Amino acid sequence: MRIGIFGGTFDPPHLGHLILGAEAHDQLQLDRLLWVLTPDPPHKQDQVISPLAQRIALVQSAIDDNPIFELSDIDIDRPGPHFAVDTVSILRSREPDAELYYLIGGDSLHDLPAWHTPQELVRTVTAFGVMRRPGDEVDLSALDGTLPGLSKKVRFVDAPLLEISSSQIRQRIQTGRPYRYYLPEKVYRLIEERRYYR
Fold this sequence. Notes:
Layout lengths: L1 E7 L6 H13 L4 E6 L14 H12 L5 E4 L11 H11 L4 E7 H6 L6 H7 L2 E6 L7 H7 L7 E5 L7 H9 L10 H10 L4
Parallel strand pairs: 1-2, 1-4, 2-3, 4-5, 5-6
């Protein structure tokens, strides 16, 4: 069993998230892709994040028609702060025989040495699925100097560059600008029905 771990606040989940998830599933040959909703991300303490129940409803509406995608409760049901290394360790204990692929962006790969106990995270995962932006250069040998063994665990995932961000979508909703086609139809309808982000 090969499991992908796709973490984020998903506030809201948009087409870019779904494309990245689908490309990771295809290129890394994943059996399952867990969407790990982070209730209280340590690196976003200074930002206002929408209520957890709202984000759960939006992620479920985004992924419910894809049997490969599933919303994970791994961080939802435990107190924060939620560090990647703890999430992966818990999942490893639940799925001891699985290969665990932790999905990150190319920018996060550069920042990995500054994460909470990064060497333990490198040791615990099977591999990192790194979503690379076109033209993004990564010096793996330099990263290996800080985190030995990291380069052997990097698997690049090539995906089209979509300049879509959740913060941009929230701002569009708040200012009355068009946002419908940045989102899956079900997510758009839910935001409209429940008047989220207004």
